[in-house]
Fold each of these.
Amino acid sequence: MSIKITDLTPGFVGEVSGVDITRPLNTDQVAALEAGMDRYAVLVYHDQSLTDDQQKAFSINFGPLEHTAGGNVTKAAERRLDAYMADVSNLDANQQPLARDDRRRLFNLGNQLWHSDSSFRAIPAKYSVLSGRIVVATGGHTQFADMRAAYDALDAGTKADIENLVCEHSLIYSRGTLGFTELSNEEKQMFKPVRQRLVRVHPVTGRKSLYLSSHAGTIIGWPMPEARAFLRDLNEHAVQPRFTYAHKWKQHDLVMWDNRTTMHRVRRFDETKIRDMRRTTVAGDRVTVEQMAA
Ligand code: OGA
Ligand code: MN
């Protein structure tokens, strides 16, 4: 059995066959998948019925796992999954859908905004690996936007304008967009803004991409309304249908994406239904810009 990757969207989304990722991979297989991630930016696998441990073991082939601390308002004691599994389901620790007005649910609605995972961390994520354990029949698609193609399509003047811009990213900004503004002092401290370049260069391919995310709330040195208006404009450009792909989940699909070169969002669905999605995150290895002293 050898790994095959075919186009779902040429140069952006690939579909992987010929590998059972529930089992340990050899170095050739890992190299083939990593090369696939560099060539595409999103890889789709089918029929991978994983346990959490298998998902973590698979993800670790691509780098150390990111710890989930600091990324949510869910308290450690309320967690359904362990600290290296990002729980992007709509469930509580008893496997029941969260109530409509549950604060954790309202916070997680932020996943419906276009974003790049962990752009609110000083060292943002490399890959995300999302496993569809229980999927919903209607809605709940995950959309992806190719930020390399979006960058390439900018005019020369805009490229020059943004080349050295630095943004501030925080969960406070993304949730603020939804009117989720009530945060404890501890949460405000935990969600302190970090700095990220607006244009990133991929460490392997050398391709530039727009590093946008709903977490981006201002541009250093700009008045905030001007920064917000400009970021909104860039976002509108970047998520045009020609740059996007929608994944319609089947049970035991697994999708992995490069957060350095893509944005994603989940579309709304009937939240009285169970949608059990579990994410592992491969940590990044560098800041995109030097951080200010705390
Ligand atoms: C994520 C996320 C999308 C989804 O896992 O990072 O944003 O489809 N989830 O649940
Ligand atoms: Mn996400």
Note: Residues 88, 111, 117, 128, 130, 142, 264, 266, 277, 279 surround N-oxalylglycine (ligand 1) (CB under 6 Å).
Amino acid sequence: MESPYYLTTPIYYANDVPHIGHAYTTIAADAIARYQRLNGRDVFLLTGTDEHGVNIERVAASQGVSAREHVDRIARQFDALWSRLDISYDRFIRTTESAHHRAVLALWQRLQASGDLYRATYAGAYCARCEAYYQPDELDRGLCPVHALACDTVAEQNWFFRLSRYQDALERLVRDTDFVRPTSRRNEVLAVIRDGLRDFSVSRRQVRWGVPVPEGTDEVIYVWVDALANYLTGVGYPDDSATFERYWPADLHLVGKEIIRFHCLYWPALLLSAGLPLPRQVFAHGWLTKDGKKISKTTGNTIDPSALAAEFGSDAVRYYLLRATPFGQDGDYTRAGFLRLYNAELANAFGNLVQRATVLAHRHAGALSAEGAACGPELELCAEAEKLDSRVTAAFETLALHEAVAAVGEFVTAANRYLQVTAPWQLAGTGDARRLGVVLRHTLQAARLAARWYAPIIPRAAAEASRRLGVTRVEVGPPLFPRYSC
Ligand code: ME8
């Protein structure tokens, strides 16, 4: 069997319905998963929902439903969205599953065995929306720095985790390896480490909706410890050791940049304490913004990805998200920008190439088998094709997803240019069947190659294009991407 590739998305809070920010990470993860499958890897893509914590308890109460009913409803909506967006996940994990409780408790017991848990009193700020503790100097004018919301004041005796013990190990990990990417995020994490790491509280007394601590102290395990453990549960920990050994450690945790503290500090420290291997990389991408503000439920500026997919198709949403912004940086969503990319690159470029290739091949089927020699324009096109393979591969390997999409787009442009230069529609009139055969074969081949490399990005259109461009029979169909007026 091919070597495994295990990647994860964050598990999203089941406090509210999904929005385009959640779709962004999940689509990126799906594109990487599909690329790795093309490479023959045995891929495991994990996503799911984070269903415990004080915020979920509160939201359910405010809606007059039980926490259980609430999370069941939201988890269904996430799952429905992933199916709408053609997300090829291997497992959808929910932290309320009993398998996950067992994993959290197994992890907790390892932390206890390492002597890294101790009792102490936490007094300070807690943001229920981030489910995070904040030091006074981390607050922004007294408010949570992520959500600009007032924090709870918490004062309780808890279990603490000895994060400070891992200061040096974490510094080495982040400084000397590719554990955190991109570099800007790595530097941010290094700065936090160099400021000095403080132990943090890993249990909550005022919260009921969670995994109870096994020591019977009437507390639940801190929701971030619970949530991070999903990456272990997802591949069989602790019950199915064959699956766990096959896929763990994860190759990639894909996350948004606001949760690097949890993934780049807490998570490796918990694993070091538990004596479990560390994931190979955490890649933190940027934020989708609208009018410069992070898209979030708290800001109230969300875009519904289901509605967008219903209007333009899932591929259009996937394409826009992966193409519009260099992966890693923030990007501002506008409907005009969406339509512009759609029309220029999907409808007029790729859609048009497939349409021209299939219509011409169908109309002049007799010329397809005519023997003839390649000349200048063909050699140029073949050189572009060769560059494409290495460019797309390099882009995916470094998670420059926008660059992978751009590379295919430029090849599509070269293929359309080739058609302009060779003008097969005129060749047909001259009766030069040999030359026409050469041009048609090269056009079909180029369109097939574009479809192959677009498959991780726009899987639906790419599969349909490949089918129509079949080696034994070419088929003409309606435009893959009908044009929309801006
Ligand atoms: O943080 N732009 O869940 P969450 C880009 N449960 N990505 C965005 C985004 C935006 N505007 N908004 C959300 C949690 N995201 C925890 C995670 S993991 C062990 C626990 C994406 O529902 C991005 O991936 O708040 C971000 O990190 C994640 O959704 C936060 O989702």
Note: The longest helix spans residues 335-363.
